[in-house]
Amino acid sequence: MAPSTVPLLFFFLSLLSLEQKIASSFSIVPPTIIKATKPASYHYQQQNFIMSSPSSSSALNAIAQEEEEEVEIPPKEILDELLKTAIKASRAAGDLIFMNIGSEITHRKANSRDLLTTIDPLCERTIKDIVLEQFPDHDFLGEEDVPPGKEASAAALKAKLESSSDYLWIVDPIDGTSNFVHGMPLCMPSIAVAYKGNVVVGVIFDPHRDEVFAAQKGQGARLNGQPIQVSGEEESKLGDAIVAMGSPPAEESMEMSLRAIQLLMPRVRTIRMLGSAALMFAWVACGRLTCYWEYDLSSWDVSAGYLLVMEAGGSFTNIKGEPWDLTERKIVASNGLIHDEMLQTLEESNVI
């Protein structure tokens, strides 16, 4: 690492420490006690987990995107069954996460920062059993079935996409395992369903706040059954934005993050680093965050969040501004209003 990046490294580590302290101060109470709440500024409408005909601007935007891309989607009744099953599976895994948060590490993957507990494979088996009981002919890609490393991740995804089934479930049983191990309530399951290579259902369940973020292709995004949208005109400029980022393990990714932070810090309202890609995508979708970017994510980290952000009216691209697909590992997700400014800043920092 170049000497000029050393001071930034200390800032980067301080930022991570601060976010961990904030997260560890959260009170954890059973999901049966917590009821999801939302400030009046958020776009809530009717209570209904199954998506009705789109009426919000975000849903209309999603339809326009679908027509432009000419994406083939399953019939509505099948989408509804996929969504019901994804929610059921995410809640079952979420209960395990909630009841076992703070579990001991049983294994370290090839990357020493990538942890594994006994609960990770248990959550994945739980999700897989529920999915295959309902859809025995569907294919399944879970993080715990794949050896560590981006090459193995890419190879596993390619093999699944070339299988005979049109449907592929893409699952991260515990997104934010490091948070989970350390007792921080920023860890959750993320479940997506791809149809012929395109994500058509996405569910992220936060068991610590009892919040189910769900989306169907062309039907908008919802939080606990109520429609949500990304942040609006109040965060239309980068200077108004609350931006989230990842904690990259590789030296190359860390160096890129440090360069981007150096330019972003004076240009945005603040930066957050929460240790869970799923949570940050979900929070962009409902307007709690304005933007989230990261350099090295696998398909199971991104797929559900991609659909949530897009169906909530946001923008989701790679860091060059090109359309995202399942093979893309470098992403920017935003409310759309600041997307160009964000991409320009990343380009200025020489990370593209």
Automatic annotation (TrEMBL):
InterPro entries recorded = IMPase, Inositol_monoP_metal-BS, Inositol_monophosphatase-like, Inositol_monophosphatase_SuhB
- EC no. given is 3.1.3.25
Q: Which residues form the signal peptide?
A: 1-23
* Keywords in alphabetical order: Hydrolase, Magnesium, Metal-binding, Signal
Name the positions where Mg(2+) binds: 143, 172, 174-175, 301
Cofactor(s) this protein requires? Mg(2+)
| GO molecular-function terms, A-Z | inositol monophosphate 1-phosphatase activity; metal ion binding
The record's similarity note reads: Belongs to the inositol monophosphatase superfamily.
Q: What is this protein called?
A: Inositol-1-monophosphatase
